[in-house]
TrEMBL record:
Coiled coil: none annotated. This is VWFA domain-containing protein. InterPro entries: VWF_A, vWFA_dom_sf. PROSITE patterns: VWFA. It comes from the Eukaryota. Residues 203-388 form the VWFA domain. PANTHER family: INTER-ALPHA-TRYPSIN INHIBITOR HEAVY CHAIN-LIKE PROTEIN (PTHR46503:SF1). It holds the Pfam family VWA_3. Gene3D superfamilies: von Willebrand factor, type A domain. Signal peptide: none annotated. It comes from Panicum virgatum.
Length: 625
């Protein structure tokens, strides 16, 4: 899908009803003390960057549990294929006794591609049957009685037929609840499968943080990813490597031409010079890279910055780099950034990449560093169209892109650009750019006014992250308030809001009616209590931790003690579904009848599907409902 997120219907969150109590996730303004009273301890949050949990207290024996979970996640794109993967494994301890209950699994999938081109199904983990096609909308269904619950995750892969560069513009009017009264648009370009399309020659400078906090697995993973990136360079490309901490250590005094010998020497140099020690200084290596790229040998200049820390002069770095890039004109270096762990300022890195027409990516645990970095290198280094501009926007009022500038088009990833405007768009827009031989290309983009695609929800996370980066850079309170409105409107936590679990007392009512969302009389506001959820935002970096070379911000988020006890108690593995429970659930299950215990455990496994909102921060492609 050429849209940034895949999402379930409604705003992200969870609703759980237990007996006479209802629990709902709710986003509140951190500056509004009257919004809700937090009178209970923490009751959930992130165990890992992709594992969200909730603790439901005081579950009595014999009580029925009803849970509804909504989440957002990105669709992956690789080698021309879009794919989605949803956790769908159930641990053994949720299985009922044999021949007692009939087990039935049902999967209903609707794909709304947003494009008029042909959609081709490439593969699925479960036997889906196509139920219908209507324009760009497809529906599939799987329903079967099974002997055991699913032992594999649900995956779905498809392609959009496109022989060459193609795209479209999706438009949706603003709503009364919207934070901005301008209409919104999403412009996307698919790279297509034209094997004759040439990739730009590159002049690359890799800037790698080797401060003391990078010691061990992080720096080793970065070195492995760097070796892969260097091996992907081809003859005609140029490169250099700068390792930085308090000082600079350069592989060469100038850009080196790519050949087998220089790549071998560079890998040997990394073995000797990628040593974790010292502090962090980002501006100095950036300036050195700019100087090295002042003569880029008629290749596309690119800078790759990798760091796990924050520094005091980040706003000054952004302003300085922006001025330097503007002075260079169309041949200015592209700046791509990669953040490791929680101590670096990811909004600074996102803004720097936006200014530099580059790509931002991140890894929050050591196990994902190498894979994510390799993808990031491939996405940013395979440019097939540069200096993209959109024709006819000069006649449109208040036209504004969410990102600072439009990125180049990569052969490895679709381009997605969103924004706002007043007025009326023409039926067709023209995207113009330059190919590797410096000839000009024009791509016709038809404007499609969507009705059944919740474009505001699909774009919300991307817009929030970019707005937050702008608010941080400009120290702008008005932009912060826009983020707050967007956050509350879409139930997505932000740096200026927080998510809580809101408990509400219900009148006595049949549980089956509660599950069907019948009208429920709620208690008065003073009977409602809220429990904070932790770890759902990134923050703006930690300069003190960086200065002290602390490494804890680079590890896994530590699980609460009760989860560790539970893991030992049931002997389950570290799969997402298996981990989702706690000791209070075990105690509650011991007081329940068998059927209720089974429903509870199934609800626990289902809640594991509630993904990490912060991990959708990078630009990605999605749009299936």
């Amino acid at each position: 899908m050429p849209l940034p997120h895949r999402r379930a219907h409604g705003s992200p969150g969870a609703e759980v009803t237990v007996g006479k109590r209802s629990y709902n996730t709710h986003v509140i303004d951190t500056d509004d003390n009257s919004a809700v009273k937090i009178s209970m301890p923490e009751s959930g949050g992130l165990l890992k960057q992709e594992l969200f949990y909730l603790t439901i207290p005081q579950v009595g024996g014999g009580e029925d549990i009803f849970a509804t979970i909504r989440w957002s996640q990105k669709l992956l794109y690789d080698n021309g294929q879009f794919s989605v993967e949803v956790p769908f494994r159930f641990p053994q301890f949720v299985n009922p006794l044999p021949k007692v209950f009939m087990k039935k699994e049902k999967i209903q999938l609707t794909v709304n591609s947003g494009v008029t081109k042909e959609i081709i199904l490439q593969g699925t983990s479960h036997p889906l049957k196509e139920k219908g096609r209507q324009g760009e909308k497809l529906s599939f269904l799987h329903e079967a009685a099974v002997e055991n619950w699913s032992t594999k995750d649900f995956t779905f892969t498809y392609t959009v037929y496109s022989g060459d560069l193609s795209g479209q513009v999706l438009v949706k009017p603003s709503t009364l609840r919207d934070y901005d009264d301008r209409d919104m648009f999403c412009l996307f370009l698919l790279p297509g499968k034209n094997v004759d399309r040439k990739v730009f020659r590159k002049a690359v400078v890799y800037i790698i943080d080797t401060s003391g906090s990078m010691q061990g697995k992080p720096l080793e993973s970065v070195k492995n990813a760097m070796s892969t990136a260097l091996s992907d360079l081809v003859q005609g490309d140029f490169f250099n490597i700068i390792a930085f901490n308090d000082e600079l250590h350069s592989f060469s005094s100038c850009l080196e031409q790519v050949n087998d010998k220089t790549i071998e020497n560079a890998i040997q140099w990394m073995d000797l010079n990628f040593v974790a020690q010292g502090g962090t200084d980002i501006m100095h290596p950036l300036s050195e890279a700019m100087t090295l790229l002042s003569n880029s040998h008629d290749a596309l200049p690119q800078i790759y910055l990798v760091t796990d820390g924050s520094v005091d002069d980040e706003r000054n770095i952004c302003h300085t780099v922006k001025t330097q890039l503007m002075n260079r004109g169309p041949k200015s270096p592209r700046v791509s950034t990669f953040g490791l762990g929680s101590y670096c300022n990811h909004y600074f890195l996102r803004m720097l990449a936006s200014i530099g027409k580059g790509h931002y990516a991140a890894a929050f645990d050591t196990g994902s560093i190498e894979g994510r970095m390799v993808q990031w290198f491939q996405k940013a280094s395979n440019t097939i169209v540069s200096n993209i501009s959109i024709d006819a926007i000069k006649n449109i009022q208040d036209f504004e892109l969410d990102s600072e500038y439009i990125q180049d088009v990569s052969a490895k990833y679709p381009l997605c650009v969103s924004g706002r405007y007043h007025g009326k768009l023409p039926e067709t827009l023209i995207a113009k750019g330059h190919l590797a031989d410096m000839s000009e290309i024009s791509i016709e983009l038809k404007v499609h006014h969507v009705k059944d695609i919740p474009l505001d929800k699909v774009l919300a996370k991307q817009q929030m992250d970019l707005l937050t980066a702008k608010a941080w850079l400009l120290e702008n309170k008005e932009l912060e308030r826009k983020v707050v409105k967007l956050s509350i409107q879409n139930s997505l936590p932000s740096e200026y809001t927080r998510m809580v679990l809101l408990q509400t007392s219900l009148d006595k009512i049949d549980p089956a009616q509660q599950a069907k969302n019948k009208s429920i009389k709620q208690s008065s506001p003073d009977e409602r209590s809220a429990m904070p959820l932790r770890g759902l935002t990134l923050g703006f970096g930690d300069v003190t931790a960086t200065r002290e070379n602390l490494t804890t911000g680079f590890g896994e988020i530590k699980s609460p003690e009760k989860f560790e006890i539970f893991e030992k108690a049931v002997g389950c593995c570290s799969r997402v579904a298996d981990c989702f429970c706690c000791m209070c659930f075990i105690k509650a299950c011991s007081k329940m009848n068998d059927q209720c215990a089974i429903v509870m455990m199934q609800a626990c496994a289902a809640l594991a599907c509630l993904g990490c909102f912060e991990c959708c921060s990078e630009l990605c492609c999605g749009g299936a409902n």
